[in-house]
Amino acid sequence: MTSELGLGSYAFFWEGADALPDGGNRWPLPLAGQLVRTAELGLGLFQICDYAPLLGYSAAELREVRAVADDLGIRLELGTKGVAPGHLRSFLGLAETLGARYLRSMVFAPDCRPTLAEAERTLRELMPAFDAAGVTLGLETYEQVSSADLVGLVEAVGADGLGICLDPANTVAGLENPREVVERCAPYVNGIHVKDFAFTRRDGWVGFTLAGTRMGEGLLDYAHLVETVRPAERGITRIVEHWLPWQGDLESTVALERDWTTHNVGYLKEN
């Protein structure tokens, strides 16, 4: 299995959703099913990212998730949002239970928007516990915090176990050039979210839509990213995600989502 390349929850955004844009509700593909699909694609890594039910899992349910992953030969990573102390401590506990050695987060959460100074104080306080547990924390690049500010925060905290989860697609909404973001963040990157993206004109030619596309067909300069960050040399994992718009019905959307996943995994294995 390919251990440094994996899928994340956002690769199952539609197949794993329990509420749909057309108002329909259904039983989504469970977490165990997502792990099975990951193994079927020859991957040995899965990032449970922004998966809301996880905090409600009992200890027995968490052990079952880990057992399924272990049986399939899959390493787990985790992802959440925010740097609130209690929240990060909860996810550190989840990481230890699940055997995850990487946690992706963001500076802001929907209910918590600290200043950069407040985030720095919190991370200085918490990183010794992460280091002691052997869990690395990666703060993701996205439009709400500039990449320069994110780099400054990581440098100010100065902890070996703190770095940046690089997703240059996210920063476009903050009017940052993805190539410049890659180059600025490269020394601090400890995880990568990989998705291609493109702009298309909206109906009537008024405005644009920024959405995902299959790898190699959009604006992501993946060759530049790999050359600059050198993930294979540095042991940095790459997690496949999508920005796939709703296709009008569940069957069409899930079919395209699966197609993108298969294509993107193949593309990344070859590149």
From TrEMBL:
Key words of the record: Carbohydrate metabolism, Isomerase
InterPro entries hit by this protein: IolE/XylAMocC-like, Xyl_isomerase-like_sf, Xyl_isomerase-like_TIM-brl
This protein's record includes keyword Transmembrane helix: no
GO function terms (MF aspect): isomerase activity
Statement: the UniProt record of this protein carries the keyword Isomerase: yes
Domain of life: Bacteria
Domain Xylose isomerase-like TIM barrel stretches: 38-249
Pfam families found in the cross-reference section: AP_endonuc_2 (PF01261)
Name listed for the protein in its UniProt record: Sugar phosphate isomerase/epimerase
UniProt organism field: Protaetiibacter intestinalis
Lineage, uppermost ranks: Bacteria, Bacillati, Actinomycetota, Actinomycetes, Micrococcales
